[in-house]
Amino acid sequence: xxxxxxxxxxxxxxxxxxxxxxxxxxGVLRALQEAAAKLNLAPENVVLVAGxxxxxxxxxxxxxxxxxxxxxxxxxxxxxxxxANRDLTVIAAGGDGDGYGIGLxxxxxxxRRNIDITYIVMDNHIYGLTKGQFSPTSAQGFKTTxxxxxxxxxxxxxxxxxxxxxxxxxxxAFSSHPDHMAEIIAEAIQHKGFxxxxxxxxxxxxxxxxxxxxxxxRLVNLDEDPDxxxxxxxxxxxxxxxxxxxxxxxIYIDDSQPSYQDLLPGYAEEPLVKARLEYEPEHxxxxxxxxx
Amino acid sequence: xxxxxxxxxxxxxxxxxxxxxEILASALNRLGYYIYGYRTFGSRIxxxxxxxxxxxxxxxxxxxxxxxxxxIAFDQDSINRLAGEMxxxxxxxxxxxxxRGKLPPGVEGVRLIEVPMVDLARELGNPIMKNMVGVGxxxxxxxxxxxxxxxxxxxxxxGKGGKLVEANKTALRRGYDAALxxxxxxxxxxxxxxxxxxxxxxMTGDEAAAFGALVAGCRLVxxxxxxxASEIMHWLVKKLPQYGGVVVQSEDEIAAISTVIGAGYAGVxxxxxxxxxxxxxxxxxxxxxxxxxxxxxxxxxxxxxxxxGMPTKHEQSDLFEMVMGSHGDLPRIVLAPVxxxxxxxxxxxxxxxxxxxxxxxILALDLALGLAKQTVEGxxxxxxxxxxGAVALPDDLNWExxxxxxxxxxxxxxxxxxxxxxxxxxxxxxxxxxxxxxHITEDRGNRVxxxxxxxxxxxxxxxxxxxxxxxxxxxxxxxxxxxxxxGALREAREIxxxxxxxxxxxxxxxxxxxxxxxxAELLGRARHVIVAENNAQGQLAALMxxxxxxxxxxxxxxxxxxxGTLFLPAEIVEPVLAAVSPMAAxxxxxx
Lengths: 292, 591
Prior knowledge:
The structure holds two protein chains of two kinds. Chain A is an alpha/beta fold. Chain A has helices at 25-38, 58-61, 74-84, 96-102, 104-113, 158-165, 178-190, 212-218, 233-242, 260-263, 281-288, and strands at residues 46-50, 65-68, 89-95, 118-123, 126-127, 133-134, 169-174, 195-200, 220-221, 247-253. Chain B is globular. Strand 2 (65-68) of chain A pairs parallel with strand 15 of chain B, so a sheet runs across the interface.
C-alpha cells in the first residue's frame, strides 16, 4: 500500500467556522491542522474532544472523530476514550472558562494522572459566547459586563498550576504565530503522557485589554533563548513567575515519567476495545465457586 | 429443632462484628441452609452500634424475619436496642467489658446467659478473638459442630500463618464448650434441623451486579466511592485486570460518568456505580449520553435521602430522579432487579440494552439489595448473551459517499454507530441538536425528526423481564412493589393466602420505559391494589398513576415506609387485611 501523504486540508470539514473575524481561534485551528499533517495522522485514528464555548466549536471544523462535550468535561471524556483505545490519538481542546473554571478539578487530576492526551486551551481571558463576562484567567480589576467595577477575583495562573500538579509537557503558544504553535502541538501530541499547550488566542470582540498588540509587546519566546533549558523544573517555575506567565515556547518537558496507562495493573497492550468479552460458562463457574 | 431461626450479633463498629456474621453465614451456607444476612451500621468507622443479622432457613428467604431467636451481645447497648425483638424462648448471650448484662424492663420469656467471651479471648492472648469465641457459642446454641466451622477458619486465615489459624480454632472450641456449660439443658428448640448440604452460593447484590457486569463484558469502571455502592468497584478492581480491563477511581461523580461515556462512545462496555448524591451530580452527563447516543451503565444503589440523608440506611426514593432526572426530553432505561440473584441478570440486561438502544441504562438497586447477603442457588451462565447492538460494518460506512450518518433516521430510531478508528465513520458527537451526520443545526424540521428518532427507540424495549408476577390468575388483592421489598411482599402474599385472601404480587422490574400494558392488565384482574415501597411520596404509585386508566387510579392504595429499614411481612399483611375488610379505612402509613 502506498503511503498517504496528508496536508492540512485533509483535516478540514465542510463547516465554515462561526468565529468573529480576527478571532485567535482561527490560528489555533490552523496550527492543529498543520500539526496533524506534520505527523501524518490518519483522521479516523484521531479523536478531538472539545469543550463548550467559542473554542469548543473547533471540533466541528477539524476533520477527525470529534466529540463535543458538555461544559468543562473534556478531560474525563477524553480519558475514557484513551483508556478504551490506547491506539487513538486523543486531543482535548477548549477555552479558559471551560478548562480552568468549571473543568479545573478535572484538569488538575488529568495532569497528576499523566494520562497520554494533549490538551489545547484557547485562552482569551474572557467569556465570549455568553457575551463578555470575566473568566478565571482575567486579571484582577478587569471590567466586564459581569464586573462593571472591575473583578475582585485574582486570576488562575494555568502554567504555574500545571507545574505544581506535576505536568510532564508544558508549552504556551500564540495565535499570531501559528507555525510555531503547530510545531509545539505536534511535539505535544508525540509526548508520552499529559501535555498542555496553553494557546493565547485573543478575543477581538469582548477583550479590549489582552489584545494582539498587548501580547506582541510582552511575550518572551523561550525557544529563542539558548540559555533556557525546558528540562529544568526549578528554572521553569522561576521563569513563568518572573514573566508573569507571558512566555511562549517549550516551558517544561519531562520524558522520564510513566504514563497513567503504563501504571495500570493488568491493562492490556492491545486496545481495550478489542478485548475478548465472551468466555465459556465453565470459566465463570470458577469465579462463582469463590462465593461458596 | 427448628426449620428457621434468626441469629444476631451486636456490638461496636470496628470490633469485627461483621467477621463474626460472615464466618457463621459461610458455615451455614456450606451446610445447605438458606441465608438472608443483613447488616445494620452507622455512618462512622469505629464506635457506635452495629449488628449482623442472619435469617437461617430450610427454604429460600429474601428478607428479614420479625423476631430474633439468638442474640450474641458484646455490649449492653446491643441488648437495649434488640431485646424488644426477641422471640419467646430466645436466648441472649452477653459479655461486655465488665458488669452483668440486663434485659430491659418488659422483656419476658427470654433467657439471658453470661459467657465470658472477652475473658476467654484475652486468656488466649488476643481480645479480638472474642468474635471467634462468639462463633463457637453460636455453634453450640444452634446445634452445629465446631468441625462445621473450622474449614472456614482455615480458608479465612490462610496466608496469615498456622499459629493464627490454631489460635482461632482454639477460641472457637472454648466458646463452644463454655456455651454448652452455661446453657445447661432445654434450649434444644434453638437447634437447627439438619440441612441438605447442597452447594449454594452466598453473595450481596453489589457483588452479584459486579459479577454480572464482568460476565456481560464490562471492561472499564470509573466510580467515586460512596456507601452503599463502593463494593461494586471493590469487587471489579480485583477481577478486571485479569481481563485487560481497568478501574478508575475518579475525582468525582461527574468525572466518573464522563469517563464512562467516553469509553462507551469508543466501544468499550463501561460502568459507573454510585448512590443518590453521586447520581444527582451525574444528571447533566446523563442527558449528554442520551443526546450523543453513547451506551453507558449507571448502577444507582439507593440510600435514604434527600441530600446526604442517612447514608447507611435503606430507602427506595430515587425513582423520580432515575425516571425523570436530567433536563429535556431524555429517554433512558431504568431496570430494578428483583432479588440479589437478579442483580446479576439485571447487569447483563443493562449492558445489552445500553448497546442496543445506544443510551444510558440505570440499574436501580437499593441499600438492602446492594448490601444484604443472600443464598443464590446458582447462576445460569448459558443464559448470558452479549448483544453489542448496531455497530456499523465497513460497508455501512461512508454513507452515500458523504459524511457518515451516525444519527441516520431509521424506522427503529436506532442508527448503526461507528467507533473511533473506523475509516469512513468520522462524525461529530455533540450534545447540541444535530442532523444525521452530527453537524449542529437548529432547523425546526430536523429538530422534530431527530427528537422523534430518539424517542422512537423507546416505544418498546424488548427482551427483558418487565414485571415479575407471582400468585393466582384472579387475585382479590394485588401487591405491587420494586427492589428489595420483594422478600416482604412475597411472604405477605403467602400469609394472606393462608388467611384466605387470594393475593397476587407484581414486582416491577422495568421502571422506564414503563410497562404500562402488562401492569394495567395485572391491575385489571384484582379488586384491591396496594403499592408498597420504601419512600414517603409513593413514587412508584405516582409513576403507575401516570400510565394507567383513571378507574384503576382510584383503586390504587399506597403503603409507605421510610424509617430507613425494610418492610416486615406483617407491616404489609395488617394494612391489607384492614383494607379488604368492609369496615376498613384507607391504608395507613408505617413510616
